[in-house]
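lol ok so funny story. i was supposed to be doing the assay writeup but got distracted and ended up predicting the structure for this chain instead. priorities right. anyway since i did it might as well share w the group, maybe its usefull for someone
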Amino acid sequence: MRGKLKAAVAGANGYAGMTLVNLLSRHPAVELTQLTSRSFAGRPYSSVFPLLDLAVFGLPELHERELSSAELIAVPGCYSTAAILALAPAVASGLVGSDVVIDAKSGVSGAGRSPGLGVHFSEVNESMGAYAIGGHRHLPEVRQELEALRSNGLRLTFVPHMAPMTRGILATCYFDLKGSLPELQDAYAEFYGGQPFTRVVPQSPTTKLASHSNLCLVNVAAQNEKAVVTAALDNLLKGASGQGVECFNIAFGFDRKTALESPVQWP
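and the output, tada:
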């Protein structure tokens, strides 16, 4: 039996960082050796992590084979994960017949742990609004992954919203449907068959059903000729640290579910 892998966590004081520490601390094959926190406010990721372009995109549902031999992994953002998992089967099967609209809501923890007016209780409680309408930083990830599945000039409109809840992502995606609803539902059932964390469910999911878990719950429905696909996940787990540990498990040959089947309770 091999010894424990030594791991360090950078940015360990943020919500996602703390969740990652929680998960790795109970991973039987990991020894946490260093926790750090450092601010790179206003600097692009590429200037801080110049090797990011060489990384495997850390979405196991699409890249499990590449992750098994990856030396560097870039885990996607929470909005990106929800939107890609909501749309990948439809795009891959050629059943998207129009531009796609992604309407997504996030809990306040998605804005991080640092205090600020935008996440003040009095500003967020009993209120919800859209932001980054001109273009969110997660949109390029969504476009990159969907175009890799089928390069057909897909046009995306993505509008995020902050919702008055601590954690969770709900992405509702709309597009004109090529073919029938049963064909679309079959495509999703086949695409995610055997996946341990992404599950197709019969009813539109709520964020609470996925909260504190590494699950992504996807429902496939339609309103007349318009497909309506919803995806719910926990922004700190499947949308961040949980998915990071999932990729870690694949890269080092552990069971993909290791340390991810028990809930993380805080925040």
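The chain is about 30% helix and 20% strand. The first helix runs from residue 15 to 25.
back to the writeup now i swear
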